[in-house]
Amino acid sequence: MNIIEDLQWRGEINQQTDAEGLAKTINEHPIALYCGVDPTADSMHIGHLLPFMIMERFARAGHHPYIVIGGATGSIGDPSGRKTERQLQTKEQVQKNVAALTAQMTKLFGDAPNTHIVNNYDWTKDMTLLDFLRDYGKLFNVNTMLNKEVVASRLSQGISFTEFTYQILQAYDFFHLHEKYDVQLEIGGADQWGNITAGIDLIHKLRGADTKVYGLTIPLMLKSDGTKFGKSAGGAVWLDPKKTSPYEFYQFWFNQDDRDVIKCLKYFTFLDQVEIDKLANQVKDEPWKRAAQRRLAEEVTKFVHGPEAVENVERISQLLFTGNVQELSTEEVGQVFNNVPTTEITAGPHNVIDLLLEMGVDSSKRQAREDVQNGAITVNGTKITDVNATIDPAANFDGQYVIVRRGKKKHFLARVNN
């Protein structure tokens, strides 16, 4: 199947401006296409990842993607999906985020020889206000702009002139990329439809209505329960390992519901239809094995963080399964137990019963003694059965943490105040 047929099978196409024309153009020759991301943060999260995975699919099919980092558009703010005016970032923060996103994109997609990463600040920074108004603002009808969903949804609350003109800047991006690199297709989220069509209209006005340029949006991804995909209990799932550790990242994918995992495999991996259909059958026939979830977690973690990260996550998971947590590094403890009940304790030796009460493992000394005597308590990987045992935090994890496990699965973490 060709790239469009593959995207349709994966369910990744929401709208197209001219489906027949785009299919014909792609069948005739490789095309250049683009997708942009604004530097609203110093990392993307998985909600950003999907359109760029599609760009990578185009690259692997022989096409020429351009990834646009929005140094200019990010300076004024996209009103899409917002009910109130966006708080502008400082120029210094925008530049810092641009550098971080450029490095992240280069790591993820820069190896492909036909993928290019550019910054729209480079082609807007020298444009004067008069040039902008005379050459491009004159071509935009205010009534048409007001009818764009992203603007219309804000009219009751109000929208600034700055955010109102965002669609002109994004339209100019498409025009510039078409002029310089013969870009013919823009890809974006469903909320970008108005901005994408504004770019196509601008090109048609400047270069003729028969100019072959197209737009394609991806659907808003919802989980089977109707909630928005991409959030964990701790918030956004970031691609930066300092914001979301590879272990947490892997676990997010591994914990996907059986009803969602095949959709995720289609959207976020490069597995073909044969492999995904096989995994779908395993979900149906042997759901307890979670083979599809494991493959999903492996594939996405490998793509974002590399094969070594997958190996390390699997090593950590094995240590947790066997209870050998003492083999974890101090850094790994902070990552793995990030979301378990956590308290702070003082440095120095602690009686095990007092420690269990202080950490909230047990609510009474009687219960704590019973748990210890019954062998239900493990501290830093060692089972404790003596109610008079002394726990010294300095003995493990550079004196920074104490890990208590009650029963087989319930973990508690203490951070040591040194």
Task: Describe this protein's structure.
This is Tyrosine--tRNA ligase. One of its GO terms (molecular function) is tyrosine-tRNA ligase activity. Helices cover 47% and strands 15% of the residues. It is built from 19 helices and 15 strands. The chain has helices at 3-10, 19-28, 46-60, 73-76, 91-109, 129-136, 142-147, 149-152, 161-164, 166-181, 193-207, 246-254, 258-268, 273-285, 291-305, 307-322, 330-336, 352-358, 365-373, and strands at 15-16, 32-37, 64-69, 116-119, 183-189, 214-218, 231-232, 235-236, 342-346, 350-351, 377-379, 382-383, 390-391, 401-406, 410-417. The protein has a 6-stranded mixed beta sheet with strand order 1-6-5-2-3-4, with helices on both faces. Strands 9-15-14-11-12 form a 5-stranded mixed beta sheet, sandwiched between helices. A two-stranded antiparallel ribbon has the order 7-8. The model has no long low-confidence stretch (mean pLDDT 90).
